[in-house]
Design goal:
mainly alpha, 260 residues
Length: 260
């Protein structure tokens, strides 16, 4: 029964990552802490294993659809990966209750931002911004690097935000189209999650076998959903992403309230 539940959690995690670019952490952490009584720190480390494997495989689908522009986001990737190490090591010092509450808040805020982004893009589409362009404003380059560093830190610290925060940076600062931002952020998420796994593993907070089993079911589901997301409109994709984040955030709040 337990292995069936683990596979089911993995399927749901892959669906969320493939459709929205959200870290599988958003699904895995609350579910394995509730269903399998994982301590929050071990849940974070284990969920990042799922992120590494699932995100890497899903990004192949986006690459085949020409929706990855890693060269233009290289500095974003480097900053995110480096700061994930620091976040992972500081996470151990954070009380479990504080991590739970912060996780729920991040989900709901991201839901509102993504939904609003879709509305604005319906009215006035913006041109993509390329960091390799010599005419790129210096402030945009610096801002994207600083924000990516903060995103990487949060990935290592609470496991959340690796894909979603990078997605927002690519949308608002780098001005990527939604599909390109989604594909690129998922690939960067796999690198950032790997950095976080290394940090958490050094502290003994990774259940590698559970992470691999979760990934086995998450990968095929994620790939299928990524193919679907690559074909739908920017407007529909934004609405879908916002709705998923909001639902997950509300569920987390209800769980935290029940356990308080």
């Amino acid at each position: 029964m337990e292995i069936f539940l683990i596979l089911l959690v993995g399927c749901f995690s892959g669906m969320v990552t493939g459709l929205t670019g959200a870290s599988g952490v958003m699904v895995v952490i609350p579910l394995i802490t509730i269903l399998f009584k994982f301590p929050i720190h071990e849940a974070i480390g284990t969920s990042l294993v799922v992120d590494v494997l699932t995100s890497l495989m899903i990004s192949v689908t986006y690459f085949k659809n020409d929706n990855i522009a890693l060269k233009s986001a290289a500095l974003v990737a480097i900053s995110s990966v480096a700061m994930a190490q620091i976040g992972a090591r500081l996470s151990e010092k954070m009380p479990e209750r504080g991590l739970d509450s912060g996780f729920s808040f991040v989900l709901i805020v991201l839901a509102l931002i993504i939904w609003q982004t879709g509305i604005k893009r319906d009215k006035s589409p913006v041109a993509p911004f390329n960091l390799s362009d010599h005419k790129s404003p210096l402030w945009r380059i610096l801002l994207s690097v600083l924000l990516a560093g903060g995103s990487g830190f949060m990935t290592g610290f609470i496991g959340a935000g690796g894909g979603t925060n990078i997605l927002l940076i690519l949308l608002f600062v780098n001005r990527f189209p939604m599909h390109n931002a989604l594909g690129t952020s998922i690939l960067i998420m796999s690198f950032t999650a790997l950095s976080g796994v290394i940090g958490h593993a050094s502290l003994g907070n990774v259940n590698l076998m559970t992470g691999i089993v979760l990934a086995i079911s998450a990968i095929p589901t994620g790939i299928y959903c990524a193919r679907f997301a690559s074909k739908i409109s920017e407007r529909s994709l934004s609405r879908l992403m916002g709705a998923v984040y909001l639902i997950l955030g509300v569920v987390m709040i209800m769980v935290n309230f029940r356990n308080s």
